[in-house]
Amino acid sequence: MDAPTAAAKRLKEAGLRPTRFRERTLEALWATDAALSHKDLVSRLPDLDRVTIFRCIKQLRKSSLLHKVRGTDGVSRFVANRTSGSSCPGNHPHFFCLSCGALTCLEGLRLPHLELPTGFEVRGKQFLVEGICPGCAQGRATAAGPDEKETSS
Amino acid sequence: MDAPTAAAKRLKEAGLRPTRFRERTLEALWATDAALSHKDLVSRLPDLDRVTIFRCIKQLRKSSLLHKVRGTDGVSRFVANRTSGSSCPGNHPHFFCLSCGALTCLEGLRLPHLELPTGFEVRGKQFLVEGICPGCAQGRATAAGPDEKETSS
DNA sequence: GATGGTAATGCAACTGAGTTGCATTACCGC
DNA sequence: GCGGTAATGCAACTCAGTTGCATTACCATC
Fold this sequence. Notes:
With 153 residues, chain A is α+β, with helices and mostly antiparallel strands.
C-alpha cells in the first residue's frame, strides 16, 4: 500500500531516498506557484525540524528538484522545478512583490542577453524585478477605490 | 584648519552632519571600485564600532550617497554613488565574482528592458551576473599556464 | 569662547537565517 | 528479521543586521 506518490517518484528519479519528509517538503513546494522561504516551509510542515528542512532543501537543490531565489530582502526562497529534465535553475527572471513579499517565477520570460566587457567569464545570471504583484495591485485599487478617484492612472 | 574634505562636502550637500566617521566611511568606499560589505568596512575602519558603521551606511543610503547590492551569497555590499546628482541606485547590472567575492558595478551597461505580463507594477530591477572577474580569470590562466607568460596584458 | 540641544556614537543584547556535530531513528538491501 | 547507511532531531553555534540606552561629539547660539 505504498501508493507511490508523484513526489516519491520524483525523488527516486533524482536518486534520493523518498522519505515521507522529503515527499511532504516537495509537495508543499508543488502546492504553490510562489517561492517559499525556509520559514514558510517550517510553518507549513510544523512537525518537521527546521534543520531537517534546511538539509532537505539542500538535497533537493543538489538534485535539481528545486532552485533558490533571493528576494531583495535577502531571504532565500525556493521553487520546485516542475519539468523533470530541464532543471535550469536560473533561466527566467523573478518578481518580488514589495507588498505581500511573494516571489514568483516569470517562467514565460527569458533572461535578456547582456553584453559584458571582455574578461568577464559568465557562470550565471539573476534578474530580479521588484514591485507590486497583480493581486496586491488589485487589492489596493479596490481598497482605495470607493470615494477616491478610482482611476489609478 | 578644517580643510573641508570632499567627503565632508558631499555629506553637507546631502544634508548630513559631516562627522569624521562618516567622512572616513565615505572615503573608504570611494577608495575602491568594488562594492564593500559591512565586514570589509569594519576591517578597513577598525576603530569604528560595527553598529555605527551599520547606521552610517543606512544614513548614507537614505541620502543616496551609496547604493546597496546583494551578492549571490546573500551578503549586502555597498557602492558609493560617484555622481552627485544622479544617484539612481539600480540602473546598471552588477557582477559578482565567484572566485574572489568581489562585486563590481557594470556602470557602462544599461539594464535590459523586460516586458512583464500585464498587472505587474515595476518599482525596481536588479540584474546580477555571476562568474569569474577579469582579475581572477587571468590569475587562473597564469597559474595554470606552465610558462607563466608574465605580460600582464 | 562657553553653553546647551540634538544628532551621532559605543556598548550590550537581541533576532533570524543558516550551519555543524552528534546521538538517535528510519529506510532498504540482504 | 537484521544490519549498514542515510536521514532525522536536538543543541549549540556563526554571521548579518537591528534595537535600546547611556555617553559623546557637533553645531548654533549667546
